[in-house]
Specification:
Helix content: over 70%
Radius of gyration: 21 Å
Shape: globular
Oligomer: single chain
Order of helices and strands: HHHHHHHHHH
Length: 269
């Protein structure tokens, strides 16, 4: 790799200075909103959604800085990417605080939390989730395939899949899939995304279990996401999909039971 000259370094710093300034401003707005929530914690769901949006913006600027570094200096800016990853985690956490972090639970368990954002229409909910998903994908792409954070992203993707499901108004989801509904298009797209994310999260946790951790908790979490997906299909009346997911659940559950017995036997030896 060619040595980075002082002139290149200077041009790089000049290029990213506006991004750094925006990052500082976002940090100040985050602190201000958190103080408002601390003083008045009631009815704070919309404020937490606003914080999630801020974290999306923050992550985007960190990704931009990394892209500029690769373009100008021909090196990956790991610090910027790590800051972007932390920002997205915080964004997901703010969403969890607003709509809950339940993976496999009936809608009634977290419906009360969603009552606070009842005035938020389906299009805005879908847009926020779509933007979050895009930001996570851009960050993963920026890190590359061989990153040490590969398995860390499994948790981030899983938590994101859960909030993507939990933010949608499932009580009216079936009615909103009627083409005559004003919420038809965003609801259909949102549900399609949820199904994809839940299946992806399940497969990724299974992959993490098989290739990295061998921790039963990871396999169980994969099964939880499969169960959550089946619950969505049942709600929507997707009979074929319900049976397909059920078969996969049965196979995974049987393997989990076998693996637990094998591990218990190995401990006794």
């Amino acid at each position: 790799m060619a040595k980075i000259t002082s002139e290149e370094r200077h041009h790089y710093q000049e290029k990213i200075k506006p991004y750094r300034d925006v990052i500082v401003n976002i940090g100040a707005r985050e602190k201000s909103l958190l103080l408002v929530i601390q003083k008045d914690p009631g009815n704070s769901a919309f404020k937490r959604l606003a914080l999630a949006e801020e974290m999306l913006n923050l992550a985007s600027y960190h990704i931009l800085i990394s892209l500029v570094s690769q373009s100008r200096l021909r090196v990956k800016e790991e610090n910027a990417l790590n800051d972007g990853r932390k920002a997205l985690y915080k964004g997901v956490i703010y969403l969890e605080e607003a709509v809950s972090n339940y993976v496999d639970a009936p809608y009634s368990d977290y419906e009360e939390k969603l009552a606070e954002i009842a005035s938020m229409d389906a299009a805005k909910r879908y847009l926020l989730i779509r933007k979050m998903g895009l930001a996570i994908q851009l960050l993963e792409n920026a890190y590359g395939d061989n990153t040490k954070w590969r398995w860390s992203f499994v948790e981030l993707e899983g938590r994101f899949a859960a909030v993507a499901k939990n933010i949608i108004d499932l009580r009216n989801a079936v009615a909103n899939t009627d083409p005559r509904s004003p919420n038809y298009e965003p609801t259909v797209y949102h549900l399609r995304m949820i199904k994809k994310l839940l299946m992806q999260a399940a497969d990724r946790y299974r992959e993490k279990y098989e290739l990295s951790t061998n921790r039963i908790d990871d396999f169980k979490q994969g099964i939880n996401f499969l169960s959550a997906l089946r619950r969505i299909h049942i709600l929507l009346g997707d009979r074929e999909e319900v049976e397909t997911v059920k078969k996969k659940l049965d196979i995974w559950s049987a393997k989990l039971e076998t693996d637990i017995k094998r591990m218990e036997t190995q401990k006794k030896v």
